[in-house]
């Protein structure tokens, strides 16, 4: 999914933050140079591999996270 998104939208992965609720899906984004954000959850499939170094940020509240990073840009 990450590769398709990058190609379709012509994005530079190094200028991208990729947010996922399935931790292991962040590995490919990190390999391509994106910042990675795991949306913490307790589902087995979601938290599997959530202790890996390819996760840059772990968040619990997506709305709050997006508001916070928007404020930091101003």
Share in β-strands: 15-25%
Structural class: alpha/beta
Please compute the radius of gyration using only Cα atoms.
12 Å
Strand order of the largest sheet: 1-2-3
Shape: globular
Helix fraction bin: 40-55%
Terminal Cα separation, in Å? 31 Å
**Oligomeric state of the chains in view:** single chain
Give the tally of β-strands: 3
Largest sheet: 3 strands, parallel
The number of distinct helices, counting runs of at least 4 residues, comes to: 4
Mean pLDDT: 92
Low-pLDDT windows of residues: none
Give the H and E element order.
Answer: HEHEHEH
Describe the structure.
The chain is an alpha/beta fold and 74 residues long. Helix content is 41%, strand content 16%. Helix 2 (26-31) links the parallel strand 1 (17-20) and strand 2 (35-39). The longest helix has 12 residues, at 62-73. The protein is globular.
Chart the SSEs and their pairings.
Elements: H1 2-9, E1 17-20, H2 26-31, E2 35-39, H3 44-47, E3 57-59, H4 62-73
Parallel strand pairs: 1-2, 2-3
List keywords for this structure.
74 residues, alpha/beta, three-stranded parallel β-sheet, 4 helices, 3 strands
